[in-house]
Design a protein that fits this description.
The protein has helices at residues 3-6, 10-31, 34-41, 45-52, 55-73, 85-102, 104-117, 123-141, 157-178, 186-207. By secondary structure, the chain is mostly helical. The chain folds into two domains: 3-53, Homeodomain-like (Arc Repressor Mutant, subunit A); 67-207. Helix 2 runs parallel beside helix 7 (104-117) and helix 6 (85-102) crosses helix 7.
């Protein structure tokens, strides 16, 4: 861990992290410029390497930093007390959208990294990712959390799940595109969640047994 960096005041740390995330997210690891990072952060290049030793060290810090945010503000909040797949996926989608709007650079950075490198992670980040993935799969699918008896008898529940997942992800991606590079106001979001609930009701009509 870059102990010298962690001792900085929050405003300065935030400036450096923001500048570095933006540069890596836009250009990828190979093309990212430490000169541009220090310029945007308002620090000397020598100080950047004093804190992180190398460009690779900075990159690995950002990777762990972004995974920690993903874990703390998304994974840890996934509900485990619902057996209704559609409701659970809807809740997850709302949390993920909130995460992307509150931490767009971290999520863009992670997305860029996985596009470029897949799962070729540094060891510490790889272990963290594997733990996050295992926990998320357990929370969503493990311990018989999903009640397949809710699905109609005449459809394949597994295929229905995939269709539901694609539909919900598609709506989430549409929201992200609508608000890309914008400051999101809560009054803009609430009507869209009402619209989202209408779509969920249609999914339940299509795939779930009808009560009564």
């Amino acid at each position: 861990m870059p102990e010298k960096f962690l001792k900085l005041d929050e405003e300065k740390k935030s400036r450096i992290i923001h500048a570095a995330l933006k540069e890596f997210a836009e250009k990828g690891y190979e093309q990212a410029s430490t000169n541009q990072i220090v310029k945007q952060a308002g620090i000397g290049k020598g100080m950047l390497f004093y804190y992180f030793k190398s460009k690779e060290g900075l990159f690995h810090y950002l990777l762990n930093h972004s995974l920690d945010i993903f874990n703390e503000q998304y994974l840890s909040l996934i509900p485990e007390d619902s057996n209704d797949l559609i409701e659970k996926m809807a809740s997850i989608s709302k949390m993920k959208f909130k995460l992307y709007t509150e931490h767009p650079l971290e999520m863009e950075f992670l997305g860029k990294f996985f596009v470029e490198h897949g799962l070729e992670l540094p060891e510490t980040a790889r272990k963290k990712y594997e733990e996050i993935y295992a926990i998320s799969m357990k929370k969503i699918f493990g311990n018989n959390h999903i009640d397949q008896s809710l699905f109609r008898d005449d459809i394949d529940a597994e295929k229905a799940y995939r269709l539901i997942e694609w539909a919900i992800q598609g709506y989430q991606n549409d929201l992200l595109e609508r608000f890309r590079n914008k400051t999101v106001q809560i009054e803009e979001i609430e009507p869209m969640w009402d619209e989202f609930d209408d779509y969920l009701a249609i999914l339940k009509t299509c795939f779930y047994k009808q009560k009564g």
